[in-house]
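Instructor's aside before we start: the two examples that follow are unrelated to each other. I chose them only because their records fit on one page, so don't look for a connection. First example below.
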Amino acid sequence: MSTKLILIVCSILFVVSFSPVHAQHHSGSLAPPIDFDGLKVALTTILFPEDFTSDDSNNANLSIRFFDSETNANIKSVTYRVEIFHENNLVANEYFFDEDGKLDLEIKPKTGCQEKELWKCTKYYGEKHAIAGAYYARGDSFPVIQGPVFDKSGQYNIKVSIVGATNPKTMTTKDLLFETFVSIPQKEIFLIKTANAQEYPVSIKSYNSKISNFNYDELADKISYEIHLDNEHAMQHDFISRHAVILQKDFSSFKQGYDLNVFVQGIKLEDDSIEFDISSPDQNIIRTNITHDELMQIEDKAGISNPLKVEILSGDKKVFSERNFIFENGFSANVSWDSNSDVGKKIPFTFSFFDAINKPVNEVLFAYSITDSAGKEIWSNIGTGGKYLGVLAPHGISQESILIPTQGQYKIKLILTGQNSKNFAEFLTSTADFKIGQPSMQQKTDGVPSWIKNNAGWWSNGIVGDQEFVQSIQFLMKEKILNIPATKTNPSESQEIPTWVKNNAGWWSQDLISERDFVKGIEFLVNQGIITVN
């Protein structure tokens, strides 16, 4: 199917709105629009995969898109000069050409350059355009940059000069200069050892802060670490402290279907600052984004120190709503979301695709739109690929953060657009109605009476002493008012109550963590023999 025909079909399927693409996980930036002969033209650079480091993969994809910012239409037949800098060192400098206004480059990082001027170690591969005299993509083959590019952590500044373009008219009298950046995270690996002697490597990738004091508390299902911020950057309004905690799929403490609670300096982050990415078949990724505004709120509530303590706790099991879809080619799909999600903010929706024998479909392309009860489109995503239409789900599963403005009835239109980087000759469509309502309170699983929250709060604030609190819990357990699951006692020499148990009690009293998290602290005290019931 030609690109022109794809766009015609797309206009029939959607009233197109250009929503952010969350599923394909990328890192990059948008250069501000420039006025050129009546046009507002802009440029983006995007690095895929988002959390790329050179020890994870041999190559990355850098996508550069030049477009009319008012219509979002690509400018055609563009010649680019691309300069890439790392810490003011030029590492790449070459000309490239692309016909559709979206230039895709394959980056192959290579370490060990001995040249003082790093760009001298960089090599370029691919075909050169006969007229433009620049490297260009032919078929599925992208131009390649190999050298000291993206081989180290930190920010890479990308200067892109538009040398020429032919739509709406040739632009050759003056180069247009755009400056963008991509960030390569710093990666650190830690080893978790569980009580049953299992070992799990945990990777933490941080974009603009150093990680230290990593710790895993198995009884509390909690990961903690400290982040060291650059104070100068942290004070900038566009600052975002980004971290990615990468866990093996079989690490049971943090798994699909359970809430995640993230605290910074003891202050709980909003859900839309946290993403639990389950799309990989081998690992789960917890992504945390702390903005400048959130840092200011944390400072107001708890004060700011450097480093900041980050704590990630596993929460209650979620109750999901879901809709199933069937397509004419035998494929099926499932779309699910947390039934207790609040409206007025972005809600994570999980899209899962299966073939005729119910196996996950790899490299599937899809698009979707959501309309309200009046038929008005409130959200859609058709992907950002210049070569094909659709959002890519490499392993048959993708997560999309979708803004549902109000409670009510909605319709989702799900469209299979292709597979293996190629669009189908005919798109396949399936629809389903769904309702987003008032979140329902989750049922309490441990039978903790609500008035115990007052006692927990008093204890955490020092109004009630440790001995009084322990005695009150023992009484409640003896009278069967508080039901704590039976556990094997393993008394420790120290009968001191850990700080984290008292903190949990205080956070629970303020509804900052779940009841289950509070009960884990009580279970720990029982296990250690600090609380006993005859």
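Example two begins here.
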Amino acid sequence: MNELEAESERTHHPDNAPEIGVRVTSTLLLYFERRYGAAQLADVFRRHAFSLSLDYLRTTTNFISLPFLERLADVLVAESKDPQFMRKAGLSMASPDALGFAYYMIRAFGSLEICFRKTVELTASFNRVGHFEIEQLERERLVLTYRSTARERHRHICELRMGQFASFPTIWGLPPAEVSESQCQVLGADACRYHLRWIDPLPMWGRYMGLLLGAMSGVGASLFGLGHTAFTISVMSIAGVSLGSWWDLSREMGRKDEALSEQAEGMMGSLEELQQRYDEMFRINVALEDRVAARTREITETNVRLEAALAKQKELDRLKSEFFDNVSHELRTPLTLILLTLDSLLQRGHQEFTLPVRQHLETMNRSASRLLRLINNLLDLTKLEAGKTKLRYEPLEIEAFLSSLLVPFEVLADKKGVALELEGGAPTPVFADVSRIESVFQNLISNALKFTSEGRVTVRLHEDDTWVHVEVIDSGVGIAAQDLSVIFDRFAQADSSGTRRFGGTGIGLALVKETLELHKGGIEVSSELGKGSNFHVRLRKGPSPTREETPEVRVEPVVSRPLGRSLDAAALLESETPVVSVAALEALPVAPQNIEAGPDAKRVLLVEDEPEIRGFLREVLKPYYRLLEASNGEEGLNMARKERPDLVVSDVMMPVMSGLQMLTALRASPETVDLPIILLTARQEVDAKVEGLTMGANDYLAKPFSPREMLARIEAQLRLRDAAVRAAENERLAATGLLTSGFAHEVRNPLNGLMNALLPLRESITSTTPDPGMSIAMLELIEECGHRIRQLAEGLLAFVRTGTKAMAVDLGASLDASVQALSWRLPPDMKVERDYQCAEPVWSDPGSLNQVWVNLLDNAVRAVGKDGQVKVRTFRDGTDAVVSIIDNGGGIKPEHMDRLFQPFFSTRDAGEGTGLGLALCQRIVLQQGGRIRIFSEYGKGTRVEVRLPLEADPDRLLPPLLSDGRVRQHHWNT
């Protein structure tokens, strides 16, 4: 019977099969109950749903099966969490609780040899699956075997048996026997063999002998008449028992002393051995410490050298990055001049140059563009190596994306007679940096067309559960087997001989591989020389990797890209076909020659440190704009503050002060805070552009750029500026209309009084009996009404009057005038509470400030409704005067707080506001050197805080509120 069959047979036995007597389990249950409590034992039986109850297992005449005993052992060991539970439970067998009255009988009259023999003899009565056999029994030593007809599953029962046999010496107060197992049936032996060693108890017959001798002495004493028989026997017996017990105790103590002496000698020997080992370990430790110290010094020196090498490498990497940044700027600067010049010549080439000359110019333009692309590839590779490249993920429809990407390549494929095809359906969108994935497929497709002179190039799409696969397959010249392993290495060429047919730097495929690895994708290549190549790209499906920068994902996947970049990629092919056709160039507008802009043209400040580029830009811009020029950022800053141009065009990298530093200074100045600024830079990475735009640049142009593009961007910024000026003027006119409506409301009463006084005055004068008293009274009324009308008119003029020079403004009077101007808008029951605690004047433009107060008060009145409350408060805080306008209206929603000062943003209903009021207020306050902030809790009200400087500076000039060209020209002339 094999082991599996035996196991199956055991599992089909009933739990109460007559195999093992419950006397075995009683020891387990007794020890568990004594150690963990009866309640815990009952809970274990309840949770594990044993088929036999506790009462059944406590009835000594009952039997259980071996599998049940093994299961019970497993449960009790697991519940106790004690791996030695079975051995400890077996040791508790030799106790009064387990043995009952037999314990005392064995202790008084038994011996260990008798215990072991009787136990083996009685085993058959409670164990019907196995039997013991004593192989050797002598003084203080026992060897016995146990054979079972049913193999046990584990050693739990073995441990129980060894514990039970080891427990017998404890009956006489001796230590448990030492038990070892030389073989085990569970581990494959034919039987379990146990070896026991113990210390025999001394025979305690001294007390009994003393009792016998004492009794005999008592009888003899009574015979000799020394006392009463009962008394003498009792006394002498007690004395005999005492002497016998003392003798037994003396022998026991002597034996224990001998045992302790032997143990002491053994311990001394062990101590001497330990001392020797300690000495050896000490010497070894000393030697080891010396070696560790020497090794530590070596490691420290090595670490110092490595840290120095690492610092040197980091410094070299930093210097290399700076070198490439500087080189990119220095290389792009002459390239910009070359491309700008060629672009300008190509624009007018159809008039001044013959066709061969124009073709040469186009070839030069194409070669310069190719040189720029090589520089960009080298910089991209350096950024990848430095780990500075961050991906901007967005969902990409790869099939539609490749369809649009192949359009310019189809023209070149047709001219070479090569079929270019896209196969496969639309796979699942992938998350990728679209611009970088675009460069990957531009490289692969352009390479395929470059190395294929006839046949076809196929772009094949398919997908599986994890990847979207794109294969670029060509029937070109193929790649030699020895070159496949290095094809993606940097600067490697598949054909490195001096007679290779195709050019290249060996950067393109290295960029492809590292870009795909950055996307957690990959690329493989298979090729056969003379038959073509297959570049297999894998892009992972699912969300973008978390290690890279992940911007907000757009709702709709990207399906295509502008074709301009693809045209640049198509130019990578060294084709003789011009990238831009002659007909297309002839259709371009021609810039006027030797003409300068008139006196009404916009003024543009050009800040560029390279004289050649500055001169070229001068020639491009002077037909359209009046130019101011500066050679560095500091000079440009001073000129912008002094001349107030309409727009600034500035390079970024310049001596003395960079373009970004100049931009920061211009945005920090109230006079130039809204001046349009366009930056020119040789750095094309996104981070550089984001930095400039974040700091306040209106637009960004990367070198090299087209003159027409620059003119278009300048014109767009100027138009936006004009639109902003017109919007601000409209908002100002709306505020003025609000004031005039109030003026008309206020002037109506004195005007009615004046008209009503004229008729009685005429009647009094023309009457046959004039009434001088009536005439004087009417004249006084007319004079009073006239004074009232003149005060209202002067107040209105003062309210809307603006100036270019700061003057002292009484905040209380200015706010009172604004409240009075809006009094006609106030509901009858509304009062505007005023608390003016700042008596010092502020130096500002009163008309502009009045416009701010009117806008803010009008907003507060609209917010509170008929039953609301508006408070106006002023106080001094350091060198600032603070004006707070507080209302208890509905407040502003938290999601609107960040957009309140954005132009054209309004929380009112459509048609109730232009959305320019707060933007204009912020602009006015900033121009006058102050700050404006809004605090609001939705549903509880709003507080607007305006801070204005208190420093007296009567000579400070204020910028005109409306940056209109005519106003500025008048200001310059004065």
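The two ends are 120 Å apart (CA to CA).
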